[in-house]
# Entry
Amino acid sequence: MPSFGCRSKQILEVLLSLEGSDGILEVVVTHISLNSAGGGELVCLSLIKALRNSGNRVTLATVDKTDWLRLKKIFGKITVPDQEFYVLSYSPRTSLGTVNSALLVALFWAELLLLRLIKRHYLMINTCGEKVNSIADIAYFNGIPLRCAFLLRGTNAKRRCLSILYNLFSKTFDKINPSLIVANSRFNKGLIQKCIKNPAVVVYPPVNVQRFRDLKRKSEDIVLTYSQYVPTQNLGCVARIAKIAQEANFVIIGPSGSTSKNTLKELHALASQLSIRDRVTFLTNQPFSRYIELLSIAKVFLRTLQNEPFGISVVEAMAAGCVPVVPSNGGTWYDILDQKQGKYGYSYRSVEEAAEIIDMLIEDDRLRLEISKRAAQRAHEFEISIFDRKILGIIEKTVSS
# Structure
């Protein structure tokens, strides 16, 4: 594995080339890694597209090398930056996931500090604000801030202690070089202001509603979940709900990587233990067309992640005509469904309640279609054009000030 020092010369060459020119803004977009291919990565790619479409020159800075072919397979058509640099050819891999994550965050800190020390004519936007919220000019928060996790109910003792220590460490940089904070939801903004105590503005993540709105629907008794195959997604909840809700088949689809092996093994074991292997399907690293196909036939879209800051896939499913069923906390409930039970979808507090709601929606087509229609209309409030307009407006104000 190449070290940070081995690539420092190439990185410096890219940075020193950022001179800027009349009418063209040089922007460095930073992200720990795009290879996990989740919602945060989609936001980063959308920001790159918006910036390039506006005539700006974009450089992408990541810790590991981006697998562009894999991203195109998962997301479909994407816009690549003008140039990019990275620290490592591939992510660090140890037997401990916590160690891997810590190494990536440490290298990301080093990369951001290097970018700030090289004084050139560029604007720096960090789309991993939940990991590092200082140093860059603008920090967009895609997830629950690592330093704020101790405020959430259900956080285990180990994570709570790590979060408190990381919060203390991060406070130093808040004073030295704070960033303009942009939160991806009202729910996340409230948490950020409670912990970091800096003002924040809300810009909802971009959703290509048009891509999902015009699908030809052929509804089947399918409950769909889109998720990365990682422990934090609480995917075992899908199998436990499926055991109770016996009116439908369940499908989980999403990207998997080197850290997904144990999660997949546990899911298959749980499905066998509950005797529901014939009713739960696990699909990994499928082409985007497969995801679209499933959205066009699923009746219900199920999310299991607790305290989810937003949930791009929920809006996509709503636009496609699915009725969302989400946990009764986080941005999926507060921001997307607007805390209105039964209007755009449903929230649940237990697997039993989720199963009851799903059975009701599968059996009552009239009710489901009424909610589906309202959900599709609601999805337009998160259209990608709104994200573009708001984030570019923030960038313009930042540059002018």
Q: What stands out?
A: The first helix runs from residue 4 to 16. Residues 1-6 have pLDDT under 50 and may be disordered. The radius of gyration is 21 Å.
